[in-house]
Design a protein that fits this description.
The complex is a heterodimer of chains A (about 325) and B (about 425). Chain A has about 325 residues and is α/β, with parallel strands linked by helices. Chain A has 2 domains: about 30-110 and about 280-315, Periplasmic binding protein-like II (D-Maltodextrin-Binding Protein, domain 2); about 115-275, Periplasmic binding protein-like II (D-Maltodextrin-Binding Protein, domain 2, 3-Layer(aba) Sandwich), CATH 3.40.190. Chain A has helices at about 1-20, 40-50, 65-70, 90-100, 130-135, 155-160, 175-195, 205-210, 225-235, 245-250, 265-270, 295-305, 310-315; strands spanning about 30-35, 60, 85, 105-120, 125-130, 140-145, 145-150, 170, 220, 240-245, 255, 260, 275-285. In chain A, strands 1, 2, 3, 4, 8, 9, 10, 11 and 13 form a 9-stranded mixed β-sheet that branches. In chain A, strand 1 (about 30-35), helix 2 (about 40-50) and strand 2 (about 60) form a beta-alpha-beta unit. In chain A, about 45% of the residues are buried. Helix content of chain B is about 65%, strand content about 5%. Chain B has 3 domains: about 1-45; about 50-185, no CATH class; about 205-420, MetI-like fold (Orthogonal Bundle). With about 425 residues, chain B is mostly helical. Chain B contains 17 helices and 4 strands. In chain B, helix 9 (about 205-235) crosses helix 16 and helix 12 (about 280-300) crosses helix 14 (about 320-345). The mean pLDDT of chain B is about 90. In chain B, strands 2-1-3 form a 3-stranded antiparallel β-sheet. Classes of the chains: A alpha/beta (about 325), B mainly alpha (about 425). At the A-B interface, helix 1, helix 2, strand 2 and helix 10 of A face helix 9, helix 12, helix 14 and strand 4 of B. Strand 2 (about 60) of chain A pairs antiparallel with strand 4 (about 360) of chain B, so a sheet runs across the interface.
Chain lengths: ~325, ~425
């Protein structure tokens, strides 16, 4: 019994000491957060970086672009990440936060990603305009100069040339950069260019053209793009919105619709003719360079791998032209 | 009257038979579901036990990275052109491939980590000075691996297939020459995560889970036992005790993600503990399992007949002595059962780990409580989210592995209970 007591007391002391020893991160490992779209590319870079240099492998978390920048701009010190990945450029409000915390973010543009509007390759390939996609997924649509609730049920309602099939779209969740980019590049762009709406205000496109419909025609899927692919393969009338790299890896199951007459491919995204593409970035905390070993080397290594013909292109990144 | 009674008995028996039948059907149904689950995961996952390898002889010039007395020079070995060395030797197997583009395609059927894998093999072998030729087995790429396992069908049109006709020809030629074959996938059990399915393993996650659970048990068990003893023997019945009791029971039902948020704000923000560390993960999971263990411990303390404690008290033992010397040893099997079940629950948990950064891509096997780590369910989650097809079978195998662990833990709990259980 005495032994049991001793063990018990020891365990309590151990857990107490573990509790009171205030460690920061082990200082020789780069900590990276940010976009789930850049995540697969960053992990390839990190692995090669660790295996081919003497630096320790960076730790990479997939937090979404917004979440990553929030963590990144929280402050200087080892408890904060050194690098954040983003599938969009840093917003001015985020930059202000960073500057207020004394952080200088250094921007690296690594390449581009296309957003595809895809269906099962057992179904017909669609040719859509951005406006038609907008009419299929937006909560509000333009009718006689006014924004009203979207009532389209079938693709043929939108354009008689399209098949007589129910509209059924799987969209990424609001936390994802893919969703942000889709809203901006398809929905806002339609309202701005086709309907000539102003940006801000109650009748601006930011207020009226950001919501997806909630009447069952659009379903929010999780962050798991593989799941979307499986669901598209199971139901050939369904469409999904996801990044080009997933289309590229699953060409035997799904196909990307032509948007404004252009097929999504490496070439059309790189030269900008495919209209739904976005730049991908990572941001480095200048103040941590030299404090955490290898940050500058990691950044240079990353940029080296983004070149055309490199391993990141093979994984679906579209290199800078 | 008599006949009526007879009929009544018969109908009661009929009801009983029917009830028995319903019960049996329910059991069969649940067993069927469990079997379907395990079999479907098993069928998806068993192929990950094998990996496609190819055999190759590679010349190495050891003098370039070893010192005079035969030690490997750390700064030199990374500068040696490992990728090039492997690729050039592989090219010799297909001398007809000459142009730059064709060679690039040819190298895409071997693992892009081949150079690194070869370097690690060289590090382990003691080399003769000067030039030697090593014959080794290296991994083929994940697409070639999936093709050899029959998971990439030739019937799909070439433009939609992950592996081209030319690549299939090369792989087939390797198999024909008997220098490519499926072998036991040792990497899966000896490596941590990787972006290349052929180099990815589960060891990092297993070690991460072990470190995390160590903290969990060290933190939760003593606290839970102390709390239970206090509540059972020292706390005066009253409103405060009732309040505590209700709250402990409520805590057991709080969604696990809430504990993750708590960990984020308390352990990371306030105490400044490191992100992604098993230390924090263990504390968070400890908080989560605490109520489970307290409830189990209290139940097992209460099941000890009061006469034992009363006898001790009657002979002049203090409350502390009665509890520590007499009740607690008898209650140990029950406490352990509760603890193991709590640990099994913690082992399968991902949600709270998400908030404290343990859902991350980590290439190294964690070495301490503060180094970055993931856990097994997290690894499964991350692999199932990867685009590469070969990760699909690997996540299934990892699921089987995790389920195996859980079954073993629960079996230990059952055996302990059976062995030490006393009937009063």
């Amino acid at each position: 019994m005495k032994n049991f007591l001793k063990i018990l007391a020891g365990a309590v002391m151990l857990s107490a000491s573990a509790f009171s020893t205030l460690y920061a991160r082990e200082g020789d490992q780069i900590s990276i957060v940010g976009s789930s779209t850049v995540f697969p590319f960053a992990t390839i870079v990190a692995e090669r970086f660790a295996k081919n240099t003497d630096f320790k492998a960076p730790v990479i978390e997939s937090t979404g672009s917004g979440g990553g920048l929030k963590l990144f701009c929280a402050g200087i010190g080892l408890e904060h990440p050194d690098v954040t990945n983003a599938s969009r450029a840093i917003k001015s409000s985020e930059k202000e936060k960073c500057v207020a915390a004394g952080i200088t973010p250094v921007e690296y543009l690594i390449g581009y990603d296309g957003i595809t509007f895809s269906n099962s390759n057992k179904a017909d390939k669609f040719t859509l305009t951005k406006e038609e996609i907008f009419k299929a997924v937006s909560a509000k649509i333009m009718s006689n100069g006014k924004m009203v609730d979207n009532g389209y049920k079938l693709w043929s309602d939108i354009n008689p040339a399209l098949p007589n099939v129910k509209i059924d779209v799987l969209a990424p969740p609001p936390s994802s950069g893919t969703r942000d980019a889709f809203v901006e590049l398809v929905m806002h762009s339609t309202c701005k260019k086709v309907y000539k709406m102003p940006k801000k205000g109650d009748d601006g496109y930011k207020a009226l053209c950001s919501a997806l419909r909630e009447d069952g025609a659009v379903t929010e899927a999780g962050e798991n793009d593989n799941l979307i692919i499986e669901k598209l393969a199971a139901n050939k009338d369904r469409f999904g919105i996801f990044g080009f790299s997933f289309l590229d890896q699953n060409k035997d199951k799904v196909q990307g619709s032509l948007v404004d007459g252009v097929e999504p491919s490496m070439a059309t995204i790189a030269d900008g003719s495919y209209g739904v593409s976005r730049p991908l970035f990572f941001y480095v905390k200048k103040e941590h360079i030299g404090v955490v070993p290898g940050i500058q080397e990691y950044s240079d290594y990353f940029m080296g791998l983004t070149k055309s013909g490199g391993p990141l292109e093979a994984a679906g990144l579209i290199p800078k032209p | 009257m008599d006949i009526n009674r007879k009929n009544f008995t018969r109908s009661r028996k009929r009801v009983e038979t029917r009830l028995k039948f319903y019960g049996l059907t329910s059991i069969c149904f649940s067993l069927l579901m469990l079997a379907t689950l395990l079999i479907s995961i098993g069928l998806n996952g068993y192929t990950a036990l094998q990996q496609a390898y190819f055999k190759i002889s590679i010349p190495v010039d050891a003098s370039e990275f070893t010192s005079e007395d035969g030690n490997i020079l750390k700064n030199k070995i990374n500068l040696y052109d490992w990728d090039g060395t492997v690729n050039r030797s592989f090219n010799k197997l297909f001398p007809e491939v000459k142009s730059r583009d064709d060679r690039k395609k040819l190298f895409s059927i071997i693992s892009s980590n081949s150079g690194y894998d070869f370097k690690e093999i060289v590090k382990k072998r003691s080399l003769d000075k000067g030039k030697t030729v090593l014959t080794v087995w290296l991994s083929l790429s994940d697409d070639a691996d999936q093709y050899l396992k029959g998971r990439l069908s030739k019937d799909i049109p070439e433009k939609d297939r992950r592996i081209s006709n030319q690549e299939i020809k090369w792989v087939d030629s390797l198999v024909e020459r008997k220098i490519a074959q499926l072998k036991f996938n040792k990497t899966f059990f000896t490596a941590a995560d990787s972006r290349e399915p052929e180099s990815a393993g589960i060891l990092g996650a297993v070690v991460g889970s072990a470190l995390t659970l160590t903290i969990t048990i060290l933190f939760a068990l003593p606290l839970a036992v102390m709390a239970s003893i206090y509540l059972e023997y020292f706390a005066k019945p009253g409103k405060v005790t009732d309040f505590i009791e209700v709250n402990i029971n409520n805590l057991a039902a709080v969604p696990s993600i809430v504990f993750g948020l708590l960990g984020l704000s308390v352990f990371l923000s306030t105490f400044g503990l490191p992100r992604s560390a098993p230390l924090v993960g263990g504390l968070v999971l400890g908080l989560m399992t605490l109520p489970t263990i307290i409830i189990a411990t209290r139940a097992s303390i209460r099941s000890i007949p009061p006469s034992i404690r009363e006898a001790a008290l009657g002979l002049g033992a203090s409350k502390m002595q009665a509890a520590m010397h007499h009740v607690l040893p008898l209650a140990t099997p029950g406490i352990l059962t509760g603890t193991i079940i709590g640990m099994a629950q913690a082992l399968g948990e991902t949600a709270p780990l998400l908030m404290i950064g343990m859902v991350a891509f980590i290439i190294d096997v964690p070495s301490s409580f503060t180094s970055s780590a993931t856990a097994m369910p997290v690894q499964i989650f991350m692999w199932s989210d990867s685009a590469e097809r070969a990760f699909y079978e690997r996540s299934s195998l990892a699921i089987l592995f995790l389920v195996g662990f859980l079954i073993i833990m629960n079996l230990i709990a059952v055996v302990l209970r059976k062995k030490f259980e006393k009937r009063w």
